[in-house]
Amino acid sequence: MPTYEYKCLECEHVFEEFHSANETREECPRCGGRLRRLFHPVGVIFKGSGFYTTDYKKSSDNGGEKALTPGKLEEGFEMMKDDLRERREKEKKEKQEEKASSHSSSQS
Ligand SMILES: [Zn+2]
Fold first, then answer.
1. Measured in angstroms, how far is the CA atom of residue 15 from the centroid of ligand 1?
2. What is the dihedral of CA 31, 37, 22, 46, to 10 degrees?
3. Are residues 30 and 65 in the same domain?
4. Residue 55 and residue 83 in one domain
5. Ligand 1 centre from 17 Cα, in Å?
6. 13, 30 contact by CB (below 8 A)
7. Are residue 26 and residue 61 in the same domain, yes or no?
8. In a domain, 59, yes or no
9. How many whole angstroms separate alpha carbon 68 and alpha carbon 52?
10. How many domains is the chain built from?
11. Longest dimension (CA), the chain
């Protein structure tokens, strides 16, 4: 269970609480005042470079399948871009034809 640290906005009392992520403490146990949750990025900090490199190797070993996803996404994005460009060119042509036809009709 994660540890959360709270600071009371009224009496500045700081204390730690163990509870699940979807719970919050709202009242100071000391004075009943409003609390502010303090965030400690303890789980995010990599202590030493050794831990980081082993973790990196691990994730790259079984991340072979994952690596395909961004490529596929990019491919899809490129297709979308092509489609968009085609559509724009079509619209341009249609507008030009519209102009040309209205121009010629006004002349006659
Ligand atoms: Zn308090």
1. 10
2. -140
3. no
4. yes
5. 14
6. yes
7. no
8. yes
9. 23
10. 2
11. 90
**Distance from the CA of 50 to the center of ligand 1, in angstroms?**
42
The whole-angstrom distance between residue 8's C-alpha and the CA centroid of its chain comes to: 31
Query: Quick check: 38 and 6 in contact, CB under 8 A?
Result: yes
pTM: 0.37
Does the pLDDT of residue 99 top 80, yes or no?
yes
Q: Give me 6's structure tokens.
A: 């709270």
- Sequence length of the chain is 108
Domain that holds residue 39: 1-43
State the distance from the centre of ligand 1 to the C-alpha of 2, rounded, in angstroms: 22
Residue 69 lies in a domain: yes
CA distances (Å), 26 to each of 8, 38, 75, in order? 9, 13, 48
For residue 66, what pLDDT band results from cuts at 50, 70 and 90?
very low
Tens of pLDDT, residue by residue over 3-21, are 889 999 999 999 999 888 8
**Do residues 29 and 15 touch, judged by C-beta distance below 8 A?**
yes
Give 44 Cα–ligand 1 centroid separation in angstroms: 29
